[in-house]
Amino acid sequence: MSTSNKTLVLLGGGAREHAMAWKLTRDGATVHVLPGNAGIPNSHPEISATDFPAIQAFCQEHGVKLVVVGPEAPLAAGVTDFFQGSDIRVFGPSRAGATLESSKVWSKDFMRRHGVATALSWQFRSDKLDEARAKATELGGQVVVKFDGLAAGKGVYVCSSVEEAHAALRDLEQQHNGWFSFLLEEKLSGPEISIIGVTDGNRVRLLAPSQDHKQLLAGDQGPNTGGMGAYCPVPFADDNILAAIRTQIVDPTLEGLQVEQFDFKGFLYFGIMLTPQGPKLLEYNVRLGDPEAEVLLPALESSLLELIEATLDGTLAQCNVWQRPGYYAGVVLASGGYPASGFPTGFPITGLADLHPSILAFHGATRHNETGELVTNGGRVLVLVGHGAELEEAVQHVYREAAKVHFQDVYIRTDIGQRPEPILGTNW
Ligand code: AMP
Ligand code: GLY
């Protein structure tokens, strides 16, 4: 039993948590991951990330005083509130703070109250579908329909015609029984960028800008997924763009957290679209992105452990964030059939031992089968991350190595980190 204050519990079990555990271990912590997965050292598959009494018992048994949260579900279920007042500190917002992610309607109202740049939107309840249809028609179908709640990436419909918008509203109605709320948003256009920081609610330390690739197919086509790959930093995110994001999105958000007296200590993720009219916030997440974390944490030279402890101690102002030079590119090796449900898993994974030593391999959904073989266990199986002095070099390196890893029906999106440089509007 360890009683070191450098022993911590990390909640979650995907490739993001593998990257977090990897980084925190490099920073000098002993990390227990609940539940973790077959590729993450010190995983405890018997304990779910939302079984708070079991997590508490584990912490007591192992002398753990710090819990770091990976995914949104334990935060939305109130893990921080559960440990409030105990000697176990949680890095992640309270349930109230997690509403920034868990309710799109609430977070949109928060953005509006505090002047955060965002898309115009209209809020409806499920008994007002006719009004929503009329509004969507008035807007020529150029709308985004957003279900108000956690929907694992499946609650957002980006529409390009009146027919599509009406079909989205029909689908929403069929998917959800009883009362629900939703938003219609004006459809914006422009490249997307993920800005993620560590905040104590008063100040924020931003990590490198990164870009996700949410759609399944090259060229941003096909269905939305949890994310097929990411890279950082983003070459076109220059100082002007970052300054606009700061003043129009990040700073008003922090002011809002202070004015509304949120005790928000954790990661805060700004999903931003760079439109011709300036940066607009699409969403908050109250956690690291996945797969953004898998590139951001290798790129982070500073100690994540120190940033977390400083946040909880109220000394974040004294911390700087240093990045390693160069670029990091991460590609997801997914099961064929993902993101639809019902695809087969359990296929043996080979080739990991042949990877170049500079490649990081984070496990998302793997397990050992009855004979001890490493096999697939879900949609996003592995995330491989490569480094290069230039983005192109990082991308080429990771794709060359990814070709060495095999499992039946493996799917890899082919254009991670290769979007053409966007032409941004000049009027902001
Ligand atoms: P969200 O979960 O709100 O970030 O939405 C998921 C994805 O839908 C985003 O990453 C965008 O690609 C797209 N999206 C969301 N809101 C808008 C919008 N107002 N205009 C255009 N695309 C959007
Ligand atoms: N990569 C997007 C997300 O984690 O929500």
Features of this protein?
29% helix, 22 strands, 4-stranded parallel beta sheet, globular, alpha+beta, 6-stranded antiparallel beta sheet, binds glycine, 12 helices, binds adenosine monophosphate, Dna Ligase, domain 1, Rossmann fold, D-amino Acid Aminotransferase, Chain A, domain 1, 428 residues
| Each distinct ligand | adenosine monophosphate, glycine
Distance between the termini: 56 Å
Radius of gyration: 21 Å
Percentage of β-strand residues: 25-35%
Mean pLDDT figure = 95
Secondary structure category = alpha+beta
The main sheet comes to: 6 strands, antiparallel
Second rung of CATH, namely the architecture of the largest domain: 2-Layer Sandwich
CATH class of the largest domain: Alpha Beta
> Count of helical segments?
12
- By CATH, the topology of the largest domain is D-amino Acid Aminotransferase, Chain A, domain 1
Helix content: 25-40%
Description:
It is a single chain. The chain has 428 residues and is α+β, with helices and mostly antiparallel strands. It folds into four domains: 7-77, Rossmann fold (3-Layer(aba) Sandwich); 122-186, Dna Ligase, domain 1 (2-Layer Sandwich), CATH 3.30.1490.20; 189-318, ATP-grasp fold, B domain (D-amino Acid Aminotransferase, Chain A, domain 1); 328-402, Phosphoribosylglycinamide synthetase, C-terminal domain (Glycinamide Ribonucleotide Synthetase, Chain A, domain 4, Alpha-Beta Complex). It is built from twelve helices and 22 strands. The chain has helices spanning 15-26, 52-62, 72-76, 79-83, 95-102, 104-113, 129-138, 162-175, 239-259, 292-299, 304-313, 391-402, and strands spanning 7-12, 30-35, 66-69, 89-91, 121-125, 143-147, 156-158, 181-186, 192-199, 204-206, 211-212, 215-217, 221-224, 229-232, 266-275, 278-285, 327-335, 360-363, 366-368, 374-376, 380-388, 410-411. The strands form six sheets. Strands 11, 14, 17, 18, 21 and 22 form a six-stranded antiparallel beta sheet that branches. A hairpin with a 2-residue loop joins strand 15 (266-275) and strand 16. The longest helix is centred in the middle third of the chain and has 21 residues, at 239-259. It is globular, with a radius of gyration of 21 Å. The termini are far apart. The model has no long low-confidence stretch (mean pLDDT 95). The protein binds adenosine monophosphate and glycine.
